[in-house]
Amino acid sequence: MYTNSHIHMTLHETIKSHMIEAMRAKQADKLAVIRSLLALFQSEQLAKGSTDPLLSDADAMALIKRAVKQRKDSIEQFTKGGRADLAATEQAELAILETYLPAMMSEADIRALAEAKKSELGITDASKMGMLVGAVIKATAGQADGGVVKSVVESLFR
Burial level of 33, CB count in 10 A (0-12/13-18/19+)? Predict the structure, then answer.
């Protein structure tokens, strides 16, 4: 019997299938987040003038990361403004979006990578810290939060 599981689905296709699942399961919150993500994808395609019905995984991931960053910024602003209710809504949306991000590296793994890059690049003083942060972020290929990388690198110079 031929099954769908043998075919690699793009991230865009996966998210579309999750929309159908969310509709069937009557998961209104998840459905709203997925629909907003698919709308983002569509506007990106229009902006690029793309005729391909699906975004590349790289483009889709970039848009998901942008949406995640927007939620994090909103949570911070709402928390500062004393609007825990709005922050909680954004937090719930963030949790759904994060399921589409690649697994993040642990702080210990980032530290090991940072130490290796530090010696590989021959960096001995804090004046080159920015260069090291950039090299580590590039080496993590999107699997580490920039803020965590920065704090790990800073700790190497204390």
Answer: buried
Q: Give the rounded distance of the alpha carbon of 52 from its chain centre.
A: 23
How does DSSP classify residue 125? S
Residue 142: predicted pLDDT: 75
d(CA 28, CA 6): 30
SS3 65: helix
CA distance 134 to 17: 36
Place of tokens 């709203």: 32
- pLDDT value at 74 more than 80: yes
Nearest CA-CA partner of 97 in 25, 37, 24, 11:
37
Q: What is the pLDDT of residues 132-147, one digit of tens each?
A: 999 998 888 778 888 8
